[in-house]
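Teaching assistant's notes for section 4

Start the section by putting this record on the projector. Ask students to predict, before seeing the second block, whether Alpha-aminoadipate--lysW ligase lysX will look compact or extended. Collect guesses on the board.
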Amino acid sequence: MSIHIVYHAYLTTSTALTGVIRDLVEKGTNLIPKPHTDYIICKEGEKIVAKDRKRDPEPDAVLFFDKDILLARLLEERYPVFNSSHAIAASDDKIETWRLLAPRLPMVPTIPAPFHYFSSMPEDSYLDAVEALGYPVVVKAAKGSFGEQVFLAEDRAALEERILAMGEAPFLFQPFDLDAAGKDIRVLIVGDTIIGAIKRTNDRDFRANIAAGGRAEPYILNERQRAIALAAHRALGLTFSGIDLTASCERPALIEVNSNMSYMGFQQATGIDVSRKILDHIAALL
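Reveal the predicted structure now:
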C-alpha cells in the first residue's frame, strides 16, 4: 500500500506540523511526503486536474495535512483522501464550524465579523453588540493555526485597532473568560474512537496551545466531554481530528475543531502513538 502525505509547502522546519509529517513517514512504509506545490492545477482535456509534477508512483490513498480545499477536491476524484475536502473546509473555517455545530452543541459564544472586501470598521451599533461580550474581548481569525492570529482587545480603542489590523481576512469575536485563560482540553479522535485527551495549560499566555508555550498532561474525560467531542467529529465527517474543549468539567463547551492537527505534544504527554493509529485506521479502510 502506497500513501502520499500532502502538507503545506511553506511550513518551516520548526513548525509543529512538520514533526507530525516526519513521524508519519518514520512509522509507515511506502509513505511519500509531498508538499502541496508538487501539484499544478490545470485544464487537461475537458477536466480540471491536479497534476503531480514529480510523477511519483500513484498512491492508494492520500493523507491530507494541508488546507488547500481545491487541491483536496481534485485529488478526491482519483484517490481516497483523508480527511475529506468537505471535512477540512468545515473545520478550517471557524465561522463555518460555529454555523454548523452551534445549533446542536454547546459552543463558546461567537459573533462573526461582517463580511468585508477590505480593512474596514463595523458601524457603532455592531461594535456595541460586540462590547456586550465584555472586555477584554477575543478577536480571532476565522482561519488560523497553532494559536496564531488570536488576540485580546482590552477596550474600545484596542478593539478598533485590532479590527483594522485584521485587514481583509474573515474573523470573529468571542468573550474572554479569565478563569479559563490559558487552559483547554484537546481530544484526539481516530475513526470513531477517542484515543485520548490532554489538558493544555499556559501560565504566561491566554492561549493554551503548546506552540504558544503551553504544557500538556494526560486528562481523563467525563461522559459529557466525550459526547461533545464525538458529536463534533461525526457531524463534520472527519476521519481523524483534534477537538478543543473548554477546561470546565461541569459545563464543557466546544472551542474549535482541527482536521490537520499537530499532535506531537499529545504523543509525548500520553505515550499514545497517534501516527500508528492513523496509519492502521487508513489501512483498515482501504
